[in-house]
Write a structure and sequence with these properties.
The protein is α/β, with parallel strands linked by helices. The protein has 7 helices and 8 strands; from the N terminus they run E-H-E-H-E-E-H-E-E-H-E-H-E-H-H. The chain is globular and about 40 Å long. The structure holds D-xylitol-5-phosphate (DX5) and zinc ion.
């Protein structure tokens, strides 16, 4: 199973319905990067704008919260067209409770870790998350280089989750995913791929998503 989640971080913010429409037929989820200029040094959308985007998206939305003190805020994003909500381990005071609240809201609960956070810090949280997001760049900006050095973390997570009976957990990678890198991440054990600049800086975003899907599975 390969899931492709285009990120609109590098799309034209003034024409988001049109930008999302370009990928709606071929992508699995829309990846929405919410940044608060506190947890990361960049700002994207406030809550009201985020909810508007989720509502008009033709794709179910995978919400990636890069916001501080996220515990009490995460379920604000749980509306009809929200598929999942991912919080950063580094931004949670009580990750177990926050992940539980996301599930209670009816959404898939995602837990993200920054490059410097080891898998060991979150492995015991596996009963509470549906998806682990292993960041393959420092969160904050699109267009950065893929950190291949994160692949042992992805492999370790995949192996551990399998051995402990959590094979159904998705592993997402986010940052620098392109035709050149997706196969490496898939081989390490990722199954869910965020792609921002690869998709929105290409001439044909829909064709790029199909190409990414093929490249992930290529022999
Ligand atoms: C980075 C964001 C990513 C970003 C990825 O903090 O979480 O989702 O949009 O962009 P690319 O694919 O260009 O690295
Ligand atoms: Zn993201």
């Amino acid at each position: 199973m390969i899931r492709i989640c285009p990120s609109i971080l590098n799309a034209n913010f003034d024409a988001l319905p049109e930008e999302i429409a370009k990928v709606a037929e071929v992508a699995d989820f829309l990846h929405l990067d919410v940044m608060d200029d506190v947890f990361v040094p960049n700002f994207t959308f406030d809550l009201a704008r985020s909810l508007e985007i989720i509502e008009f998206s033709q794709l179910p939305v995978d919400v990636h919260l890069m916001i501080a003190e996220v515990d009490a805020k995460a379920t604000n994003y749980a509306i009809d067209n929200t598929a999942g909500i991912t919080v950063h381990y580094e931004a949670c005071a009580d990750p177990i409770e926050t992940l539980k609240q996301i599930r209670i809201s009816g959404k898939r609960a995602g837990l993200a870790i920054k490059p410097n956070t080891p898998f060991d810090a979150v492995s015991e949280l596996a009963p509470y998350f549906d998806m682990l997001l292993v960041m393959t760049v420092e969160p904050g900006f699109g267009g950065q280089s893929f950190m291949e050095s994160m692949m042992p973390k992805v492999s370790q997570a995949r192996t551990w989750l399998h051995q402990k009976g959590y094979s159904d957990r998705w592993i997402q990678v986010d940052g620098g995913i392109s035709i050149a890198t997706i196969r490496t991440a898939y081989s390490a054990g990722a199954d869910t791929f965020v792609a921002g600049s690869a998709v929105y800086r290409s001439e044909d975003p829909a064709a790029m998503i199909s190409a990414l899907r093929e490249a992930a599975a290529a022999n």
